[in-house]
Amino acid sequence: MTRLISGSVIETEERTCEVHGAYTAKKLCFGSREIWSGCKECLENEDKERMQAVDERRKKASMDGLLHRAAIPLRFQGCTLDNYRVDATNPKQQRALDFAREYAASFDEAVRSGRSMIFLGRTGTGKTHLSTAIANDIIRRGYTALFTSVMEAVLTVRETYRRDAEKKEREAIAAFTRPDLLILDEVGTQYGTDSERLIIYEILNARYQIRRPVLLIGNARIVEMQQAIGDRALDRIRSNGGIAVPFDWNSYRTRVGIEDLDTANAVAH
Ligand SMILES: Nc1ncnc2c1ncn2[C@@H]1O[C@H](COP(=O)(O)OP(=O)(O)OP(=O)(O)O)[C@@H](O)[C@H]1O
Ligand SMILES: [Mg+2]
Ligand SMILES: [Zn+2]
């Protein structure tokens, strides 16, 4: 990867590179300009670094593309299993993190068996955080994931009912079936109408038939989740080894709020 310098050599001189020692520097002439060549090894290293930087940028761009296609909301794009903090006095929170870790780590198995998972519990406890952390983790390992709220999924499918719709219903359902992992957030947040339940059932059933796992998330209790998505859909998830992980501690949002206030006070003084 030596940089080619085309010009005529008009003079040489023994010089010393601080890093690589002695080398023969050449005075090159480009028309009216004269330039002394530097250490060949330094030049090669520079080239290598530049190539590596380009490579990394490319890799990062394609990873960003994958994360982008996973539709993870901006707020949760930085969520990882490692930056989920566990309060030492809260074994349930530790358990939730352990489940998330285990699920991501054994995703090879989960994607083959269709083993799903359910996060249920109070607001601000990090259900969405941990679910997107799982997505971020498995995407880095080459799997595909899609994050969507129930509302979004329902609207996407309903769009196709319009007469002038570009996409057919089948295609919309397929988009939710294709990813290795589908994260369905905010289940049971709104009152589930029959037509909503039917759409969710269609998506979950399509995935069930080809044994693809889902991660369901909701604030409701399991009975309410059952009402929101229908017993048949929930049955399919549970019969396939899907477990429900409870999140029933205080909101992290209010905790952060208090900390922010402390920082603000510290700055004010
Ligand atoms: N244990 C934690 N460690 C670090 N960040 C956390 C933790 N729990 C929650 N958070 C952060 O707090 C915010 C709220 O968490 P998140 O949105 O995941 O909660 P949620 O359980 O999905 O709430 P909701 O049910 O209201 O949707 C997020 O920004 C999340 O990253
Ligand atoms: Mg959430
Ligand atoms: Zn050198």
Task: Please provide a written account of the structure.
The protein has 269 residues and is of the alpha/beta class. The protein folds into 2 domains: 8-65, no CATH class; 74-254, P-loop containing nucleotide triphosphate hydrolases (Rossmann fold, 3-Layer(aba) Sandwich), CATH 3.40.50.300. Helix content is 50%, strand content 18%. It contains 10 helices and 8 strands. It has helices at 40-69, 91-105, 107-113, 127-140, 150-159, 169-177, 194-209, 222-229, 231-239, 252-268, and strands at 8-17, 21-30, 33-36, 117-121, 145-149, 181-185, 214-218, 243-247. The strands form 2 sheets. Strands 5-6-7-4-8 form a 5-stranded parallel sheet. It has a 3-stranded antiparallel sheet with strand order 1-2-3, with no helix packed on it. Helix 7 (194-209) links the parallel strand 6 (181-185) and strand 7 (214-218). The longest helix has 30 residues, at 40-69. It is elongated and about 85 Å long. The termini are far apart.
